User: Which sequence fits this backbone?
């Protein structure tokens, strides 16, 4: 149900920003917000279906930044697009550009947390940024993913007792997502001394960044 509501909300946003851009084709904000909505929709599609949305988003980002180089929605969209392409180092300045305009944007803070970890940054810094994003917006619908991310990073550093409360919080907030269950199963297996194959699958496929590995290839 949550996924259905998310898809409906994105579809409504796209429709609204399409109308706004039609009314004012030189609106950098409308172009940037439409680009971001298209990227968010495409992230949950298969690659073939997503390609047109990503291409149009890229065009709208260029249009928005040409009209207003500091437009935060365009930088957010560009960061998410680069994130999807696993170009994490290039994505970071885009999220930092958003934060230069609005230091309290929880989405940009959260994405920066993921990028820093993926590029070999401190696990503690990544966790601190994710916690900051949660504090900035305690009721944000993205928080269950942030709980899961914090738990995942603790788990990857073998801090099992620190991971469990966050993973349980993620599972409670988003019971339809099985990833927290996989990690919690691995904790039980670890304490019994059993191999945790389901956890290894989860580590590869269930990060809050949309299914990317916890480390870039080659690291």
Assistant:
């Amino acid at each position: 149900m949550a996924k259905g509501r998310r898809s409906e909300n994105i579809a409504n946003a796209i429709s609204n920003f399409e109308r706004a851009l039609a009314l004012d084709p030189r609106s950098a904000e409308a172009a940037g917000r439409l680009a971001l909505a298209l990227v968010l929709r495409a992230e949950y599609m298969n690659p073939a279906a997503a390609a047109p949305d990503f291409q149009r988003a890229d065009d709208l980002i260029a249009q928005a930044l040409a009209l207003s180089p500091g437009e935060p929605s365009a930088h957010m969209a560009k960061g998410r697009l680069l994130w999807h392409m696993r170009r994490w180092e290039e994505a970071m300045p885009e999220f930092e550009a958003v934060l230069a305009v609005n230091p309290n944007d929880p989405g940009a803070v959260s994405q920066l947390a993921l990028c820093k970890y993926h590029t070999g940054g401190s696990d503690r810094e990544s966790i601190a940024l994710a916690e900051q994003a949660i504090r900035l917006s305690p009721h944000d619908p993205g928080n269950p993913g942030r709980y899961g991310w914090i738990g995942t990073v603790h788990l990857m550093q073998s801090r099992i007792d620190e991971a469990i409360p966050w993973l349980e919080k993620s599972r409670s907030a988003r019971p339809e997502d099985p990833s927290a269950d996989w990690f919690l199963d691995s904790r039980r297996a670890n304490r019994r001394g059993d191999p945790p194959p389901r956890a290894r699958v989860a580590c590869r496929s269930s990060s809050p960044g949309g299914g990317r590995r916890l480390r870039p290839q080659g690291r």
